[in-house]
Specification:
The longest helix is centred in the last third of the chain and has 20 residues. Helix content is about 35%, strand content about 20%. The chain is built from 6 helices and 9 strands; from the N terminus they run αβββββαβαβαββαα. The protein starts with a helix and ends in a 7-residue tail after the last helix. The strands form 2 sheets. Strands 4-3-7-6-5-8-9 form a 7-stranded mixed sheet. Strands 1-2 form a two-stranded antiparallel ribbon. The chain has a single domain, classed as Glutaredoxin. α5 runs antiparallel to α6. It is an alpha+beta fold and about 230 residues long.
């Protein structure tokens, strides 16, 4: 039987259906009475994303350093890829949206490794289950695995029980540029990668990149709601 912590997270995820997500963004300097609480299962008010520039409470400004076992059982730090912009994806084998993301993550690793990006999966699950699944499906990027220590890593991102998947995008200095809660899709991923690239090239600060990405994400969501809209 899986630990109660896993069951609780799975139940929350199933109830929410992973249909709503936030980008861990809040409006710049919102009035106290209008501050937006961070919840992976609460939709943002209209226009909030376009004003976003700050990470939500609980999300650290830099990638926390934690160590988990890799597929070979060897302890490995998440900081084992110095000088790389990180795409850190938290997932579990029992999570259907997590499984659906894996082909895209494989593709991102293949297409963007030469431009300085590194995908790392963090599986909060049992080691044997992850090893078997990774071999069966053909995951082509590094995987770190933890049970309670995996949950401890999750809690360092302010995501105690909000469910999976979630993905953290950092620049080469390990600063968190974007945070995506929910299933990641190709068009969203490209916007988030563009934001990180602009930070790495010194064109924008992380806050400026978040605001620019939020505007594009808002336009993407609006276009998705209108199938007849012209491409961006």
């Amino acid at each position: 039987m899986k630990p109660l912590a896993y069951i609780a997270i799975a139940s929350l995820a199933a109830t929410a259906g992973f249909g709503l997500y936030r980008y861990a963004l809040v409006p710049s300097h919102p009035p106290e009475s209008q501050a937006i609480p961070f919840s992976g299962f609460q939709a943002s008010p209209p226009g909030a994303a376009a004003q976003a520039a700050a990470l939500a409470p609980g999300v650290p400004a830099e990638l926390p350093d934690f160590t988990l076992a890799d597929l070979e059982g060897i302890p490995r730090s998440i900081r084992s890829w110095p000088g790389k912009s990180m795409i850190v994806n938290f997932w579990a084998t029992w999570c259907a949206p997590c499984r659906r993301e894996i082909p895209l993550l494989n593709q991102l690793q293949q297409q963007h490794a030469d431009t300085g990006f590194q995908v790392v999966g963090v599986a909060v699950d049992f080691h044997d289950d992850v090893l078997r699944y990774a071999q069966d499906i053909g995951i082509r990027y590094p995987i770190l695995i933890g049970e309670q220590d995996g949950l401890d890593a999750v809690s360092r991102f302010g995501q105690g029980g909000l469910g999976f998947p979630f993905t953290v995008f950092t620049d080469r200095q390990h600063r968190i540029v974007m945070f995506h809660l929910g299933e990641l899709h190709a068009e969203q991923a490209q916007i988030l990668l563009d934001a990180v690239t602009q930070v790495d090239q010194g064109e924008l600060t992380p806050a400026q990149a978040r605001a620019a990405a939020a505007r594009r994400l808002t336009a993407l969501e609006a276009r998705a709601a209108r199938p007849d809209a012209p491409p961006l």
